[in-house]
Amino acid sequence: MTEGRRRCTGAPGHRWGTDSLAKLRAGRAALLGGLIGVSGALAAVLANDIVCLAMTPVLIEGCIRRRLNPLPCLLGLACAANVAPARPPGVSIDRGSTRERRAGDDPDPSRRGGVVVGMDGLWAYDGTLTCYTHRMGTRAYAVTSDSSPFGAHSITRREPTATDVAIEILYCGVCHSDLHIARNEWGMTQYPCVPGHEILGRVANVGSDVTKFKVGDIAAVGCLVDSCRTCSSCEQGMEQFCLNGPTMTYNSEDRHLGGLTYGGYSEAVVVDEAFTLKVPDNLDPAGASPLLCAGITTYSPLRKWNVGHGQKVGIVGLGGLGHMGVKFAAAFGAHTVLFTTSPSKVEDGKRLGANEVIISNDEQQMNQHAGSFDFILDTVSADHDINAYMAMLKLDGTLVLVGAPPNPLQLSAFSMLFPRKHLSGSLIGGLPETQEMLDYCGRHNIVCDIERIKMQQIDEAYERMLRSDVKYRFVIDMASLKE
Fold this sequence. Notes:
The chain has 483 residues and is of the alpha/beta class. The chain has 3 domains: 2-83; 103-291 and 476-480, Medium-chain alcohol dehydrogenases, catalytic domain (Quinone Oxidoreductase, Chain A, domain 1, Alpha-Beta Complex); 294-427, Rossmann fold (3-Layer(aba) Sandwich), CATH 3.40.50.720. It has 15 helices and 19 strands. The chain has helices at 2-9, 18-46, 50-65, 71-83, 176-182, 232-235, 285-288, 294-304, 320-331, 346-352, 363-368, 386-390, 414-417, 431-444, 458-466, and strands at 115-118, 121-124, 133-142, 151-158, 164-173, 199-206, 218-221, 224-226, 247-248, 268-272, 277-278, 312-316, 335-340, 356-359, 373-378, 393-401, 422-425, 450-454, 473-477. The strands form 4 sheets. Strands 5, 6, 7, 10, 11, 18 and 19 form a 7-stranded mixed beta sheet that branches. The protein has a 6-stranded parallel beta sheet with strand order 14-13-12-15-16-17, with helices on one face. The chain is globular.
């Protein structure tokens, strides 16, 4: 026992003392670390990843000090360098983006929220190796409260998954809903808020399973970017009415990254192929972008109620929605009548396709048309008297609301009872119908009447929109975001 203890402690007479053993172990560790370090550095250089190269000696030193084998760490670092995909053209990478997924999204919170450095940014660990979500810093314009002006902001987009399409945004239309939500007029806004759901751009990158799009194609994104895809509404192609709640393009829960979705007031967007739309080549890109909301919002109810030849159809309001309602109703062959409070819009209404224009605050003109309409589409987003338009309907006539005034409508029951009339509402369209609308516009060369603006003019545009001082849709040229 004594001899054995002496040998272990390096007693006199034993060749290997404590100092010698320590030196041998240190030498072996240094040799192993040096070899692995060279391999790791070479892998990092081959992967063109300066971050991995810089981290290699740090990992080696830390492992040696703790008498740990650095090989697994270095192999993981080299793999991270090699598997990181290249970023899409036109998309900047923010290496400082460290927003993590919420731990509560996973049954095992300890597996959530990890961050691995990759070639072009950060990967957020999603629980398994196949669920790494690469995150890209993207320039945008946002509001941070219901009273703040818009300002430059950085948001996070995911790297395309196998079924995703990455789009460099060229144009984004300005919808009245953007104003409502930015200023929290509907009481449900979360900040920071990046609006915009009339998105048109050029495909910059596609996932491995994408079949409808290739790099360079013109593509569009409307009001929806996801849904459950399994409920009865989704199975009927009416994703806007998803029973489990659709994912809206902005101010909705982001099912991939957590947090909020951000809209088209930005330089790029990544959307699943199933929620990405093809745009006919003959359409002007800027004029086509508002079709993604203003177009489908008016097209859908006119198709649902079979508006066409032999019908007298009214369109209330000549704004972003109303001017598209006039264009579609006229294209479908209906006798189209515009209701407006502005005499200055009479000429424009007829230019857009209206057969007649009624000044709605002229009682005599309204009385002349009472009880004669088969269908009326009300596009007004400001408070107004709905009963005046109900009086225009004939027996079994229908008035459909697509505008969303901030205050509840005051409806008289008698305006529906005598004679029997119908009041309904409509909300955009599903993906199949939206694609149908775009294809129809391509065949008939229908686009929106627009005024192009720079991103920096968005606050001014909102104020002008409240004054109806636009003909008839603002469209942001997103190239201005880089100025």
